[in-house]
């Protein structure tokens, strides 16, 4: 076991910026558990190391869980377990390709936390020096149980460190309600002793309140609340409104700037995972390369679908397309041949599209044609294409599948292939705006539609977004759908959509269908022609959905290790 702790301590020393004198106390190979829990510098390192198991944008399917949703296409059909999920080919025996070691990862994090609780009781350090550390570990223990809950549903609650010498590992799963109650209890224990002003990458009172609000929202949602128990929605409403009302975390008034490195608007951010040059911890360093167009030396591994682009309203508050996705909405100011004018500002802040001026030039997603001299309509020849197509001179083999790419969360001050920068854009886990939306959702399900609209419209009306309010005539299922679109647009690329699809149980509506991009033709006279419903993402033709995908399979090896005491999720 000592080797395990040495590894964790090594991680901790590089994660933390604690006093370097700690390194001079004694050689690493002489550090024992006793040393760690009786020395405040070593204990600081140990607690800081506990954050290493937080969700990591690169670890989970290379670019987060967005690849497992309807909002983007994925360029590598056989990579990172994406196809197994979106084509309904995932089983207990191959599920780890999709979950990327999620089960073991969070239980490893829980073992680290539980080791703390097992050892801190015998520490010689005064409680005044350890109580805030203890609160952080309660927060992390809650966070890792929440992540397991969101992937698998009810899981075994791990509130103590298990030893290899124990004989009985036949551990059954706890119910969803039991796991939720444990998470809430951990957070209620942590909150009084957490700091109000902790660094963004460390647990604070607000971060614990935020995790509590999100947990209770999930617990109230259709996936985990099939009877629509209103008391669960009331509990979620109370917890999320408490975060919404925190005056020390204002909503940012420049949407794009919230996600920039060293953003002046980071007051909106409640909790984040941060990476730096010294300790990148396997994440974030290649985000520019993975998301940018090929003409900027990127790979466009994931690309927004036209279906998602259609969720961005025009500035008059109307959807640009009718439900078929190809017919322009006659009630909007949308121009299908100038499709990116008069759009929600969050579209321009998040999406790279043809004609966008970005990093010193216009993005070029068009294919060039020349009209045939005989004037016969449609008689034309492809002569080339823009810098961001397969005709481009940089990464010509890596064009976007949809003729869109992603700018949100990237750092345009750097290049795509630049050496590792000193700091990265923040990997935001909680920010203020989410909790206006969370609260709105609770009010929809409680039947308080005016209250729900008010919360949604606060998000839409803030400076830098300035979208029209959702009118009072939008009610019932239409209001719910408007809310779901608002959430997809506002929280794009922040790790929510995968969970939202499953907890709302809307997979059959949005997942099992082909995905499309946009075709853009440029003719010899310079005219651009945009075509919708023609650019099929080839791999998406075999997307399929089954409700077993609402929960992920527990690794088959874990089921066997408990002598089948742990029940597998339905359908696996």
UniProtKB/TrEMBL annotation:
InterPro entries: SusD-like_N, SusD_RagB_dom, TPR-like_helical_dom_sf
Cell compartments where the protein resides: Cell outer membrane
One Pfam family, short name: SusD_RagB
Entry superkingdom: Bacteria
One GO term describing the cellular component: cell outer membrane
Occurrences of domain SusD-like N-terminal (ranges): 83-214
Keyword annotations: Cell outer membrane, Membrane, Signal
Domain RagB/SusD: from-to ranges: 268-572
Main localization category: membrane
Signal peptide bounds: none
Family, as annotated: Belongs to the SusD family.
Name of protein: RagB/SusD family nutrient uptake outer membrane protein
Species name: Snuella sedimenti
């Amino acid at each position: 076991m000592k080797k395990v702790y040495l590894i964790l301590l090594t991680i901790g020393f590089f994660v933390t910026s604690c006093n370097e004198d700690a390194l001079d106390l004694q050689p690493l190979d002489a550090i024992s558990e006793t040393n760690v829990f009786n020395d405040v510098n070593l204990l600081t390192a140990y607690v800081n190391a506990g954050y290493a198991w937080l969700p990591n944008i690169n670890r989970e399917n290379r670019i987060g869980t967005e690849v497992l949703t309807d909002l983007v296409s994925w360029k590598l059909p056989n990579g990172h377990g994406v196809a197994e999920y979106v084509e309904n080919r995932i089983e207990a025996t191959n599920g780890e390709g999709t979950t990327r070691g999620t089960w073991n990862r969070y239980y490893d994090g829980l073992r680290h936390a539980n080791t703390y609780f097992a050892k801190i009781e015998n520490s010689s350090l005064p409680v005044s020096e350890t109580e805030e550390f203890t609160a952080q570990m309660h927060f992390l223990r809650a966070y890792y149980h929440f992540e397991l809950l969101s992937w698998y549903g009810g899981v075994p609650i791990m509130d103590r460190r298990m030893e290899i010498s124990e004989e009985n590992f036949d551990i059954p799963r706890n119910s969803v309600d039991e796991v939720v109650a444990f998470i809430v209890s951990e957070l209620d224990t942590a909150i009084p002793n957490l700091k109000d002003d902790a660094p963004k990458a460390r647990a604070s009172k607000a971060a614990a309140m935020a995790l509590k609000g999100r947990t209770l929202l999930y617990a109230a949602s259709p996936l985990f609340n099939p009877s629509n128990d209103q008391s669960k929605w009331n509990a979620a409403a109370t917890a999320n409104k408490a975060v919404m009302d925190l005056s020390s975390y204002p909503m940012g008034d420049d949407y794009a700037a919230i996600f920039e490195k060293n953003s002046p608007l980071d007051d909106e951010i409640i909790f984040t995972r941060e990476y730096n040059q010294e300790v990148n911890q396997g994440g974030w360093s290649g985000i520019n390369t993975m998301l940018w167009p090929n003409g900027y030396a990127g790979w466009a591994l994931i690309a927004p679908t036209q279906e998602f682009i259609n969720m961005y309203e025009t500035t008059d508050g109307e959807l640009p397309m009718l439900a078929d996705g190809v017919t322009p909405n006659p009630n909007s100011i949308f121009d299908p041949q100038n499709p990116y004018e008069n759009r929600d500002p969050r579209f321009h802040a998040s999406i790279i599209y043809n004609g966008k001026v970005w990093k010193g030039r216009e993005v070029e997603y068009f294919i060039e044609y020349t009209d045939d001299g005989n004037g016969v309509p449609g008689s034309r020849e492809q002569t080339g294409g823009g810098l961001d197509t397969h005709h481009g001179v940089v990464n010509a083999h890596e064009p976007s599948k949809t003729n869109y790419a992603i700018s949100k969360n990237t750092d345009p001050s750097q290049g795509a292939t630049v050496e590792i920068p000193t700091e990265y854009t923040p990997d935001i886990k909680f920010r203020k705006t989410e909790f206006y939306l969370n609260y709105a959702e609770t009010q929809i399900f409680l039947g308080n539609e005016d209250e729900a609209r008010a919360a949604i419209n606060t998000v839409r009306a803030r400076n830098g977004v300035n979208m029209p309010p959702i009118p009072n005539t939008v009610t019932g299922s239409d209001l719910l759908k408007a809310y779901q679109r608002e959430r997809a647009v506002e929280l794009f690329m922040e790790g929510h959509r995968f969970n939202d699809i499953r907890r709302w149980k809307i997979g059959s509506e949005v997942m099992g269908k082909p995905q499309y991009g946009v075709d853009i033709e440029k003719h010899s006279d310079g005219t651009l022609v945009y075509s919708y419903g023609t650019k099929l993402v080839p791999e998406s033709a075999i997307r399929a959905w089954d409700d077993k995908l609402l929960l992920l399979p527990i690794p088959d090896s874990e089921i066997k290790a408990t002598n089948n005491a742990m029940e597998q999720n339905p359908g696996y």
